[in-house]
Design a protein that fits this description.
4 copies of one chain form a homotetramer. By secondary structure, chain A is α/β, with parallel strands linked by helices. Chain A has 6 helices and 8 strands. The C terminus of chain A is likely disordered. Strand 3 of chain A pairs parallel with strand 8 of chain B.
């Protein structure tokens, strides 16, 4: 991995976003071994879209950080979930399912096809994206039906996979994108970088800048009981 | 509540199902104060569809029971979530959102309209179901977009609510149905009883009787690599 | 084609349904060259689910028959749309889109994967269905997002295709299933026969046996204006 | 109507868009009585989003114009369908259903509730929008399940209606919004004007500026058949 990503995979992902989004995005990279996994309040409070990659050490992620992340997504922060992060605590909590899948690491060619070619996440993306060698992720992928299905991958071994999926959860938008195994230089691929940059733009908070999650409210005064409305209607 | 439901609300719900489903269903009722909330292995293992009502004491529900329930739903057990159980641990875990809503208890009339009149849950159900007095549940209801929206309620105070919603999670089917506040005799209503009976039939496991949740698999032999297939294609 | 389907493809499809559904289904086969394409009133009026295969001569299908079919589907008749019938008048009318796709006839292997393994259409269906040689249908398939996505196909040439898709239209259910090119003996395949039989059962009318399409109604008396309801609420 | 909309309803709608969108939008208004209903090639070819209101004279709309509109929407033009245009030829063609509904003109109060409060169409829109008097549109509304449900209306007479619905068709986006009966000054309402302006922004073509609809393609060379890929995989 050090060979493919000398500064760490996170630096490559960050550099790809900066390359394509320029001054319109401030990109920061943090790692799991930092305190609070690099996501203390002051960082989360100033993050519009969070990109999450994880592998093997999901169980070591602090539940308090996950709680915080969860509230933040429900409050409007965008979340990009990458590759093996299908098993991350935050993704499983947002989905409510096992998020299981089929896999095999045998250097298959992966072709990523758009099934939603006018969706903003596919802008400027080749049809298909060709990844010469990659780990196979296959169906059945145990997720809730996506609100929008964007990409389906084919593997030279014969499998298919819903590799790009969108959901809204609370006020936040979630995009799962399966490419990105650590044994292949996937995040250097121009098509993959384009998808990530597009997805960051798509996942930005729409307009509810307070980032508080929806709360139960004891709704005040009703609106139909002004004199004359209800009893006279349709008479 | 003892007045409206002398044997307990659970007995009224159970009696309604038995009345409409007859011998085709074996109906059992359990309560939160039983050991394991009445849901030990041998009960869950022989339950096709579970109906869950809860209020105020959600936090007292044992996490181990919720874990078990969750696995069971993902494995194919149907789940009907009733009224204030929108805040139950099991529903929030399956949805991944806050499941918050607006409410007010002021005896509003509720009209329940089908927006999916050929769906099996609406068979034999009047359009609309009229509940003369009920607690108001209103939007915004913070749930994932339902896979199928079945009912929308109007309240005489002016609110609306997505009162009947279907989702698939794993192999299981989930139906949320909002009527059923303990201060009103809602579960005696013929239209409500019909919806519950229909929903039990709808939520039955389809065909995967093993009830194991989907698991990650290291997929064996690929299928495209027989000689001659790939290199000769399109020639 | 006479070699693969000596009695005609329609007879093979019909025989497959009879084999799997037995006495529970009365199966009839008609062809385009019959008067009214074999679909006069008395036939349509006694059909619960119609299976439609067509190729090359879509334009010759009588618009009056299509009008009748359309009303019938909106009234509750199930419709299975097979292979090249993606370009049939009835399917395009129900979808509202071009229903275009990518294709190539070069004997590719097709693997049909379920992405909805607890759906009734997938009961008893192998994962994947393997068709050794078939015409390729690929994305982008210009359809409305399916209400339920059931199957995705992979082709040995690298393409993918949403090959099994469900929609509700009016009171009727529509299932598109892409296998079935006339140059390959696809409808003799046990897995394909199983899907068709399952889909017939799934597409049956639910409960609105009148088969009339929804009509605009000038809704009578409102329901909230009984004395005391509206003006007293929330007081 | 001349009293409520002295320059015509179309001028009020256009003025509302100009007021809120400013220089970012060039707004034009045309009417049915113009040649080609004011929509010749040079107009459609330079229109990103079309707003359509119609009533009573749907049948008089030229099928050739509808064909042209349909192709244009499938090619990426946004379409806003207003009020009684649920029965317009273009909307019914895009939906594939009867688009029937229940209605009654008895001056009911309408409350329009967002069920998707982080969707861009709801930005800056009050919860609910209150229309003191309006024609009632009620369920069942015979449309395909919306890709995104945005608004639900309550009427003081007790009905509900899915009053704001989004669909993608081809490359185009379609928004149906039910307020706007000619007997009430609805398009002067600030909340309604805000929804229309937001919807215009939402419905803009994403990035496929050629505006051609998707066409069937005989897909060229496959991508998996380079030497060594397929036969070696998984070995």
């Amino acid at each position: 991995m050090a060979e493919r990503y000398p500064g760490g995979m996170h630096q490559t992902i960050a550099a790809g976003l900066t390359e394509l989004l320029g001054d319109s995005a401030v990109v920061r990279a943090v790692t799991q071994d930092q305190p609070e996994h690099g996501l203390p309040d002051e960082v989360l409070a100033t993050t519009d879209v969070l990109t999450w990659w994880g592998h093997a050490t999901h169980a070591a992620v602090d539940d308090a950080v996950v709680d915080h992340l969860h509230q933040r997504v429900l409050g409007g922060m965008g979340l990009l979930v990458l590759h093996s992060a299908h098993f991350s605590k935050i993704f499983r909590r947002l989905m409510g399912t096992t998020c299981s899948l089929a896999w095999r690491n045998s250097g298959d060619t992966e072709l990523i096809w758009s099934v939603n070619p006018s969706h903003p996440i596919t802008a400027g993306v080749p049809q298909p994206i060709v990844i010469n060698e990659h780990e196979m992720y296959g169906e059945f992928f145990d997720i809730p039906a996506p609100d929008e299905l964007i990409f389906i991958s084919a593997f030279s071994s014969g499998e298919v996979f819903r590799s790009g999926c969108c959901w809204r959860r609370g006020k936040g938008k979630v995009f799962y994108f399966s490419p990105g195994d650590q044994e292949y230089p996937v995040y250097h691929h121009p098509g993959i970088k384009r998808v990530l940059a597009n997805a960051v733009l798509w996942a930005r908070p729409e307009h509810s800048a307070d980032f508080s999650a929806h709360a139960v409210i004891n709704q005040p005064a009703p609106r139909f009981n002004r004199p004359g409305i209800a009893e006279g209607v349709g008479a």
